[in-house]
Amino acid sequence: MNSFRPSSFLSPTQIYLGISSHEMLNDIIACWHIRHLLFLCDPGVATSEIRSCIEKILKGNQVSFDMFTEIEPEPSSKTVEKAYEIYRANQATALLALGGGSTMDTAKAVGILATNGGRIHDYEGIDKFMRPPLPLIAIPTTAGTGSEVSYSCVITDTERDIKMSIRSATLNRAKVAILDPLALSSLPHHVAAHAAMDAFVHALESYVSLNANPITDAMNMHAIELIALNIRPFVSNRNNLEAGLSMLCGATLAAMGFSETGLGNIHCMARLVGAFFHVPHGLSNAVCLPYGAEFNLMANPEKFARVALAMGERVQGLAPLEAGRRAVEAIKQLNQDLGIPKRLREIGVAKGMLPEMARIAFESNYNRWNPRYTTQQDFEVLFEQAF
What are the tens digits of pLDDT across the range 96-115? Predict the structure, then answer.
């Protein structure tokens, strides 16, 4: 924590959690007087039991809805435009997103356009829209991104072939999030593992961020504990509802944390791996994680020592640096147990792109948040080590 810098904490999302908490939709519908909504659902859960349960609740409350399922990973501006056209045709009064980060980000973008007009490109950056978006109910079907409580949505601009980040701390979050482990049961093994590691990286990088404060520390440390204890049983069996609920809570806590603190080198590197080689975001993070963690260890060994303890490592009697090294080793073991590849070359990264990626990584200025100052040459070394 930077003791000399004022910090803050904000989380305006109402959160319901627990097994069968999707049934709280009945109360939300009554409270908001919803009669028509736009229901966004990603293809992976289009035929799932949780979607059937949601539709039954909507019909039972005489709520009509338009369905939009054409949502790809890392959604594009064209996808947002398609969903927005459906909204414009029927003028829903609320949005319901059932899916992972891509679905929730698409819903957020549609919500912005519904009340502010224009194109989603107009709102790239921070606080570029002023009217509150259409109210969003988010039901995550992965325990990973935490998009239901984060203040950004990321949309790919197909014209410029770049990812646009649209951010507003006060406006761009779901009004309600429902954390129901029943929504996780249809997740494929590899998707569950990659999303879970994304959540772990969120918690770790937010915990050691230069902008961390006592409130985010408490949230992120508990997130690390929840994820470390439950990730293996959850990935092994997505019908383990107790583990699933803990993972959802861990992912949400971590997203609440990093929304205030920013992230670090691991996300910076993973973002470029995904952009250049179309590797899923969670997988990119997981592969980069051991290298980024080892690099940052010396910047805050005391915090890494606490991470080791949260991951179940025995660190009593060890000096902070040595105890912190146990966290790095525990991270490597976690990746191995989940079947995460060790090297970037194994997920399709080309060595010739590493210098360019290092240049962009340095210019992205994650030094605002990363605990150890990182030069362009440092990034080159990190990419080489990970390769």
Answer: 999 999 999 999 999 999 99
Pairing state of beta strands 152-157 and 162-167? Answer: antiparallel
Tokens representing residue 59 in the block: 């019909």
- If DSSP codes are grouped into helix, strand and coil, which group holds residue 16? strand
For the chain, the residue count is: 387
> In whole angstroms, what is the distance from residue 290 CA to residue 328 CA?
6
| Cβ–Cβ < 8 Å for 98, 147 | no
The CATH architecture one would assign to domain 188-386 is Up-down Bundle (1.20)
pTM of structure: 0.93
Rounded CA separation 159/296 (Å) = 36
In the chain, CATH 1.20.1090.10 sits at 188-386
pLDDT, tens digit (0-9, with 9 covering 90-100), for 254-267 = 999 999 999 999 99
Distance CA 151, CA 174 (A): 9
Which of these, 334, 343, 30, lies nearest to 194 by C-alpha position?
A: 334
Structure tokens at 224: 């690390």
The C-alpha R_g of the chain, in whole angstroms, comes to 20
Element of type H or E holding 101: helix 101-116
Q: What is the CATH number of domain 14-183?
A: 3.40.50.1970
